Amino acid sequence: xxxxxxxxxxxxxxxxxxxxxxxxxxxxxxxxxxxxxxxxxxxxxxxxxxxxxxxxxxxxxxxxxxxxxxxxxxxxxxxxxxxxxxxxxxxxxxxxxxxxxxxxxxxxxxxxxxxxxxxxxxxxxxxxxxxxxxxxxxxxxxxxxxxxxxxxxxxxxxxxxxxxxxxxxxxxxxxxxxxxxxxxxxxx
Length: 188
Prior knowledge:
Mean pLDDT: 80
Number of domains: 1
Largest sheet: none
Number of helices: 4
Number of strands: 0
Radius of gyration: 27 Å
Helix content: over 70%
């Protein structure tokens, strides 16, 4: 009987899907400009490639990384969330820079006839829009992971406080019972 996927596995598959789309964007952009003649396009390529690689590593860590220590797992989760938020910010900046240069204003502001044909320019615009969609989806997934990590941290803190409270209560009760028995033995 097939088992149900856990939340982290669903997020991992979504991250792998986003990584494939990012590599598709990098491939399409390399067809538009083979050598980085335009720095914003090159920057978008680099950011999408870095996003694909890092997201793939984090997605595969769902199956290949395992720790029996809850604190270590939480620290790894927090690290991946911080890195993903940094990626979202830099990807969004790269997409916005390319959007402002190539998509905003008149259609021929960012169009250079020596570099682009109409098909390549259309492919560039499509890649920029797809990059913005990737940034939004990655932000949604990362916000969801942040919510899960914060809930687990609260649960872990609550469990730690309960165990400390139990330990303190058991120590206090054992000391009080010891004191009661010693008092009882002295009065005899």
